[in-house]
Amino acid sequence: MSAAREFGKPDCKIWTKIKRVERCIRSNDYEIESKNPQFRTTQLKLSRKIQNMKLPRSQSMRSKTKPEKPHIAPKFYGVYLLRSIPKPGTFYIGSTPDPVRRLRQHNGELTSGAYRTKRKGCRPWDMIMLVHGFPNKIAALQFEHAWQHCYQTRHIDVSKRITTTKTGGRSLAHKVGNVRLLLNAPFFKAMALKIMCFDEVVYNTYVENKFRVQGGDDSLFIEYVKMIPNKDDGNLKDVEDFKEKYTTRNKALMEKFSKTLQHGEHECPYCDEMIDYINSDEFPYISICYHNDCENICHLMCLYKQTVDPPSRTNEKQLIPQKVKCQKCSRVLLWAEVAKISTWIRGEIGLHEPDIMNSQQTTDMMIEEEDNFED
Ligand SMILES: [Zn+2]
Ligand SMILES: [Zn+2]
């Protein structure tokens, strides 16, 4: 599927870094460095991460004879912004498949990982913003990297930058302004990402749009909760509530899809071919309308042709449509959402692959070891 491939295109800098570490591990270089226990632990962790990571076909280290696993988008992948409670001018950017576990690590409740946020008496941390809805882990890594390096990322035009130097732009308004810029970058815009603000102040800062960043439909992307301050574990309760709500909603959605498919044969309204997940072994990528009271089923590629905003054939960046229209209920569907859900339906209901969210619990970000710590 071209959409998935486009999302998976790796950011050169991250891949250069991964390749470098890969080489280092393959040639057993970490043995030389092993006098430093912290470095050795990091290297071992990285080697495990690389083995778990889905590399582009040409760069894959896996054996070619192994059957390829179906692509299933992660149920959740988020890039977050932390703010230190004792030092509110200090921020930290990271990414995770599990924001609850990650915040507990940052605040020292769980011992593994996140040693960078231990320092300088910054604990505890509040998770004040969470950008989510990424189609895969690599896309989240790219967003994380771009947010950390907004003074040089290719996703923000030089003329539009609000942070121009490595040491500049450290206020909340800058952090939030850069999210706005990234969400409007063609690459990330196509992913229909969502923002969760765990603080009214952060939400207001976003809406205020101090740097007058053009574009974007706020109502489509953003939601917020009022923060309940807590001295010990930051806003863990708020993040837990968010995760609970998110998981419940997804579960209900999958139950709805499963129920719809139980009826057996369905005719695709566009090509008139039958879709049958019960009596057939073929599980094409399909779309089931995610709006309430609508169960419209069709092939994903048939729906692709019904785009509301026909993508430009000459501009590669716009090959992916933003919106499509449900033929039955006439409501707009976000293409990125539909495409993502389609991989869940095919993987979990069709091929009975286990929920990918659980299999990704052990992954952590490698680039967080770098210079994303700011104060
Ligand atoms: Zn069709
Ligand atoms: Zn519909």
Automatic annotation (TrEMBL):
Database matches in SUPFAM superfamilies: GIY-YIG endonuclease
Subcellular location as annotated: Nucleus
Signal peptide: none
Keyword set, alphabetical order: DNA damage, DNA recombination, DNA repair, Endonuclease, Hydrolase, Metal-binding, Nuclease, Nucleus, Zinc, Zinc-finger
Molecular function (Gene Ontology), one example: 5'-flap endonuclease activity
Subunit structure: Forms a heterodimer with SLX4.
UniProt protein name: GIY-YIG domain-containing protein
